[in-house]
Amino acid sequence: MGWLEFYRTVTTPIGLVVIPVIRFFEKRSSDPSAWRQRRGLLPETVLKQAPFDLWIHGASVGEMTAVKAIVDQIMKMRPSTKVLVSSFTPAGVLQARKIFAHNIPTIHLPIDYPKATRLVSSALSPKVFCTVETELWPNLLLSLRETGSRLLLLNGRISGRSFNSYKRIRFLLKELLGSFDFICTITNADRERLICLGAKTKRLKICGNAKYEDMLIKADPQKAKAVGQKLGLAQIDRPVIVAGSIRANEYRDVYQASIRLRRDGLEPFIVLVPRHLERTKQIKAYLEAKGETFQLSSQVLSSRLPTIAYKHCSFLIIDQIGLLFWLYHYCHVAFVGGSIAPLGGQNIMEPAAWGKPVIFGPFVDNFQEAADLLIQQGGGRMVRNSDDLYLELKRILVNQNLRKGAGKMAKKTLEMLGKGAASIQAQKILEFLCE
């Protein structure tokens, strides 16, 4: 008996506990269909469309960017492809439905319980199954393999921190990774780590990051203009700093840096974008305690004259989702959070898509190669605290030539990392579909 079969045997009795719990929530949920899908019971509308050519899975919202980029390329190359998309988190499913509308069905991934995965795998019978960014579910992969599906891992990545943890279960991962027919990795470091964990060398190829290719396509100034006009950002005649995806207490670092810039006479306008909206109250309370006035994006969007709202304040707090990418278009320089706080970093390449200089902290495990290349090319700078952040912001804001040059190199870095990545991976999928 292999490790995957052993895993299946061990997890089978777990369902006796998990399934009643899911049914409990299903009866009390406003969306019982989502919970039924967790048990492997798919909607009739999806079952009628089976079998599918391609089932592609992304864990949550972040992975949907890569999923979209790859699916877009698939449909360009082979419009007749029957595609299904899944996600594990409710937010991921909502994002997928928003992206693909009614053109491509979207489902909640079943729990990794043998009965549920067998039901879904046999019902959907995809010719090819793709999972994005090393989202590995042993029972699901085993069930799909048994139904004859070809398995691909796309945008494969293993952070340094995850790698150290994964090495402890290499005995399981070797068989799991060996079940893939092909693996597309983002970087050479990802490739080497996956090989060390048991992936077969001949089945790996460095393909770049599909997320980044999608950003290059997505960075449409006209769409950004629509957002900017509603928020009144296009009329601001001060240096604009966007602090994106800030987490923990990073808003304090940004505030302290901004106060010192104000003392230097730069009068920056700061856009604070928390990664999680529940932190908005904390940011508001902090600014109020400092005697600062500010505006909320929800309030500004409801105003007919949004620029008036900024006359006596220097802070805009974004309390809505889906705006950040477009806001980077209007900044002079961006700070990307989750990086001074030791949280692995957020997407430091989004400002680069607009040709903006990027500042980030030292904790960028999730985007390490991008961070290294940004620094190497001169498009990004690393800071460790509010003092460093102040100095970097000042250096960039007072030197227009430096600012433009850094922005240009930031975009060049993004092109180096992402151009063609989605297309290459889509082509690999088609090779297996057309066998």
Would you give an account of this structure?
This protein is of the alpha/beta class and 435 residues long. The protein has 2 domains: 3-208 and 420-433, Rossmann fold, CATH 3.40.50.11720; 221-417, 3-Layer(aba) Sandwich (Rossmann fold), CATH 3.40.50. Helices cover 49% and strands 14% of the residues. The protein has 21 helices and 14 strands. The chain has helices at 3-11, 15-28, 32-38, 44-47, 61-77, 90-100, 114-124, 138-146, 160-166, 170-178, 188-196, 210-218, 221-231, 250-263, 280-289, 297-301, 324-327, 368-377, 386-397, 400-418, 421-433; strands at 54-58, 83-87, 106-108, 128-132, 150-156, 182-185, 204-206, 240-246, 269-274, 295-296, 315-317, 333-336, 358-360, 380-382. The strands form 2 sheets. The protein has a 7-stranded parallel β-sheet, with helices on both faces. Strands 10-11-9-8-12-13-14 form a 7-stranded parallel β-sheet. β13, α18 and β14 form a beta-alpha-beta unit. α2 packs antiparallel against α3 (32-38), α5 (61-77) crosses α12 and α5 (61-77) packs across α21 (421-433). The longest helix is centred in the C-terminal third of the chain and has 19 residues, at 400-418. The chain is globular and about 70 Å long. The two termini are 31 Å apart.
Summarize the structure.
The protein is of the alpha/beta class and 435 residues long. It is built from 21 helices and 14 strands. The chain has two domains: 220 residues, 3-Deoxy-D-manno-octulosonic-acid transferase, N-terminal domain (Rossmann fold, 3-Layer(aba) Sandwich); 197 residues, Glycogen Phosphorylase B (Rossmann fold).
